[in-house]
Design brief:
single chain, 585 residues, alpha/beta, Rossmann fold, Dihydrodipicolinate Reductase, domain 2, nine-stranded mixed sheet, seven-stranded mixed sheet, 16 helices, globular, disordered N terminus, binds NADPH dihydro-nicotinamide-adenine-dinucleotide phosphate, binds the ligand O=C1O[C@H](COP(=O)(O)O)[C@@H](O)[C@H](O)[C@H]1O
Length: 585
């Protein structure tokens, strides 16, 4: 364990352990509350107020300083008195002096993810006033680049939601002035020491908090963590590391990665990102379930016939064939994104919205899952096709993919949760690249109405087939709709199926933030709810590793499907075997 990281970290789950604030418990009263409203115009709070309504954050007084914390004052204000435990400091604003700073280092800044997602998300947070008063962003990679070149690169990546908004270029200029670049090797202590020196200069003696985003290939994660932790971690505030997937290829490699990371970091310094957890509709899943009386009572085997998690992309592995061939669609999408959504969907009510309470429930669901049977899995691989005069390449046409590759680019699977709530309910997953459309959705198909009166004279509608279905469309065109049977207006009695439709674009004028914005902000705030804990990861791999091993050892041949099609027909047989029809057809 590196000495620089042996200090306690100040997670929401370990708030009382902070040596810096352990004596700073205070009482909040009416005066303090008045101060809170006076402070409400600060940019940080505006951001927290408008976007993060789920009472995760608050502003409290601590020894004369105002501190943005991660807990809800509302919950604690019951008797007009709030006892604040020592808190993880997000920003400390005292007597007009701004004492803390956050340095964000994007390790692998020259890469695809950094350009496509991380820098645009950081800019969006800046634009929305969500970044602390004092922050610095450093790009770190081996490529030689000046600060100016990094800024030029970042300025070109603004393809996201902010670029058409008021004062965008002005804000961009301000943002870019806070971005710097440091050239270095990922395994060089010396280069990280040099980074540390630069960070310190920017921090200017303030309490320093440091976030490292590992946007690099997984084989160099540990080298980078080792150097960052021993040569560039904060000596006064927190140090956190965001780790991108893949977290290993199976149980063994994942455990090895976790062990190596834990050699240099405490678990609560590791933020394992699954960006699907940052998507608006995925975040909303718990709200839908636990804040609406009408859903939770139906959320079990008693009323739900099956649940479907569907991911499709209308493009192939273009440009990422090298990475993808080593992993395949089961590891790339199912074992993480879809399984995480399943866990949120199926978990029991957590004790609270605290990260640990939620993750405890997710782990329980994952550990209750039945081993996946090979006969409950279909795999496919896209092949080249020509349509409308355009030729679309097959997976193995990619020059970085071996010609005889058996790597699945499509998979469908039936999973089961062996607990009393979900006994016997098929949870179907389907994920594929180079399909006819790009979408991600959750479909909940309810049982048919017993003894339905209207089956007798519904004018041809078979109510056993037209059961209620709740669709949570994660992307695109985010929305939630419920299929119901309804009388067609008129003198006769004819039923049809209609939608009660909550389409976000018509209901909300606010743009939907990118998942990376939410997750980066959470990491800065120390909110771990949407990050994967190591036992969740272990449980996810324990479920998929035996299946992956079997598929690979038996050299299972994927069913070929044409680029742009709906995927292999085998997926329909799999669903039919479980008395299910895919809802997206
Ligand atoms: N791109 C995406 O859409 C997604 C990516 N991810 C994950 O995020 C991480 C980053 O992805 P991405 O940006 O696509 O990755 P890249 O392949 O673009 O790599 C990022 C940077 O790492 C350095 N690098 C690349 N290969 C090596 C190597 N063999 N040895 C040392 N350094 C290397 C390069 O910088 P330099 O040469 O300048 O040092 C490169 O610019 C990966 O773990 C990936 O799996 C996860 C989800 C989506
Ligand atoms: O993690 C990954 O996700 C992307 C899809 O993300 P989305 O937010 O664009 O839906 C996928 O293309 C990639 O293969 C995978 O690694």
């Amino acid at each position: 364990m590196s000495s620089s990281l042996s200090r306690p970290s100040y997670s929401s789950s370990s708030r009382t352990s902070s040596p810096f604030f352990s004596n700073h418990s205070s009482l909040i009263n009416g005066d303090t509350r008045r101060s809170l409203s006076l402070l409400s115009a600060s940019p940080q709070e505006l951001c927290l107020r408008s976007q993060r309504k789920s009472v995760q954050s608050s502003v409290v007084l601590q020894d004369g300083a105002v501190v943005v914390t991660n807990s809800s004052p509302i919950e604690k204000l019951k008797d007009g008195l709030l006892s604040i435990p020592s808190q993880e400091v997000v920003a400390e604003l005292g007597g007009g002096e701004h004492e803390s700073t956050v340095s964000i280092t994007v390790v692998g800044a020259s890469g695809d993810l950094a350009k496509k997602k991380i820098f645009p998300a950081l800019f969006a947070l800046y634009y929305e006033g969500c970044l602390p008063q004092h922050f610095t962003i450093y790009g770190y990679a081996r490529s030689k680049m000046t600060d100016g070149e990094l800024r030029h690169m970042v300025s070109k990546t603004l393809t996201c939601r902010i670029d058409k908004r008021a004062n965008c270029s002005e804000k961009m200029e301000e943002f870019l002035k806070r971005c710097f670049y440091h050239t270095g090797q990922y395994d060089s202590q010396e280069h990280f020491v040099a980074l540390d020196k630069k960070l310190k200069e920017h921090e200017g003696g303030r309490l320093s908090n440091r976030l490292f985003y590992l946007s690099i290939p997984p084989n160099i994660f540990v080298d980078a963590v080792k150097c960052a932790s021993s040569s560039a971690s904060s000596l006064s505030g927190w140090t956190r590391v965001i780790v991108e997937k893949p977290f290993g290829r199976d149980s063994k490699t994942s455990a090895a990665l976790t062990n190596s990371l834990k050699h240099y970091l405490e678990e609560d310094q590791i933020f394992r990102i699954d960006h699907y957890l940052g998507k608006e509709l995925v975040e909303n899943l718990s709200v839908l379930r636990f804040s609406n009386l009408i859903f939770e009572p139906l959320w079990s085997r008693q009323y739900i016939q099956n649940v479907q998690f569907i991911f499709s992309e209308d493009f192939g592995t273009e440009g990422r064939g090298g990475y993808f061939d080593h992993y395949g669609i089961i590891r790339d999408i199912m074992q993480n994104h879809l399984l995480q959504i399943l866990a949120l969907f199926a978990m029991e009510t957590p004790v609270s919205l605290d990260a640990e309470d939620i993750r405890n429930e997710k782990v329980k669901v994952l550990r209750s899952m039945r081993p996946i049977q090979l006969e409950d899995v279909v795999i496919g691989q896209y092949k080249g096709t020509a349509k409308g005069g355009v030729t679309y390449p097959g997976y193995t046409d990619d020059t970085t993919v071996p010609k005889d590759s058996l790597t699945p680019t499509f998979a469908a699977a039936a999973l089961f949760i062996d607990n009393s709530r979900w006994d016997g309910v098929p949870f179907l997953m389907k994920a594929g690249k180079a399909l006819h459309t790009r979408s991600a959705e959750i479909r909940v198909q309810f049982r048919h109405v017993p003894g339905n009166l209207y089956n007798r004279n519904s004018g041809g509608t078979n109510l056993d087939q037209t059961t209620n279905e709740l669709v949570i469309r994660v992307q695109p065109d985010e929305g939630i709709y419920l299929k119901i049977n309804n009388k067609v207006p008129g003198l006769g009695m004819r039923l049809d199926q209609s939608h009660l439709n909550l389409l976000y674009s018509t209901r909300y004028s606010k743009e939907i933030p990118d998942a990376y914005e939410r997750l980066l902000l959470d990491a800065i705030e120390g909110e771990r709810r949407l990050f994967i804990r190591s036992d969740e990861l272990d449980a996810a791999w324990a479920l998929f590793t035996p299946l992956l091993k079997e598929v690979e050892e038996k050299k299972m041949i994927p069913e070929l499907y044409p680029y742009g099609s709906r995927g292999p027909v085998g997926a329909h047989y799999l669903a039919a075997k479980h008395n299910v029809q895919w809802g997206d057809l």
